[in-house]
Amino acid sequence: MRCDGRVKGNLTRIDDAVAEIHWIADHGLRAGVLLPVVPPGSHLDQLHSPRYEPVWRTCEERGVILNVHGGSGQPDLGMHPATISLFVLEASFYSHRPLWSLILAGVFDRYPNLKLVIAESGTQWIAPTIEALDRHHEKIRTGNIGSLPLTTANCTERILVHELLGRRELHVA
């Protein structure tokens, strides 16, 4: 589906997604590809899966921007009296998941010129999220939790130095 210079990404077939990214670049669509935010329990692999490496690589190589829209990615809550309230309360959390999924999976480390736009999600969540990611990074670095192939930079350094001030831009609209 094409709308306003952006293509809605379909990640079920990676080869098709890569072909669509090339189409986006070849036709000058500046808004890039709208990522589906994969809800928990989905049949799709989550965005931190290595399965999507060709997508991230092609977006960086072709200069195609990744987009995520607020209010997407929630699990099926059913239709119950509390459903609307739960949606309103949780919508921002699920639309922010792609950022920390891509950071923790090392996607921005491997593709330093990849751009991500998070639309209609506000900005008040950014500072506490970065602080939480930094605490998590420190626990990994000191061996107190899990093991991830992280660079020596913590999330604040990666986001503030690299994304906002230089190599890549993190846009929150």
Task: Explain what this protein looks like in three dimensions.
It is a single chain. The chain has 173 residues and is α/β, with parallel strands linked by helices. It has one domain (2-172): TIM Barrel, CATH 3.20.20. The protein is built from six helices and six strands. The protein has a six-stranded mixed β-sheet with strand order 1-2-3-4-5-6. Helix 1 packs parallel to helix 2. The longest helix has 22 residues, at 83-104. The protein is globular and about 45 Å long. The model is unreliable at 1-5 and 161-173 (pLDDT under 50).
Describe this protein with a few key phrases:
disordered N terminus, TIM Barrel, 6 helices, alpha/beta, 173 residues
Short characterization:
The chain is of the alpha/beta class and 173 residues long. The protein contains 6 helices and 6 strands. Strands 1-2-3-4-5-6 form a 6-stranded mixed sheet.
Q: What is the fourth-level CATH superfamily?
A: Metal-dependent hydrolases
Name the beta content range: 5-15%
Order of helices and strands: EEHEHEHHEHHE
CA-CA gap between termini:
22 Å
* Structural shape: globular
- What level of helicity do the residues show? 40-55%
Judged by helices, strands and strand pairing, the structural class is: alpha/beta
Low-confidence stretches at least 5 residues in length (pLDDT < 50)?
Answer: 1-5, 161-173
Q: Kindly provide the radius of gyration, computed on alpha-carbon positions and rounded to a whole number of angstroms.
A: 16 Å
**What is the name of the CATH class?**
Alpha Beta
**CATH architecture descriptor text:** Alpha-Beta Barrel
Largest sheet: 6 strands, mixed
Record field, number of beta strands: 6
Instruction: Give the total of domains.
Output: 1
Average pLDDT, to the nearest integer?
76
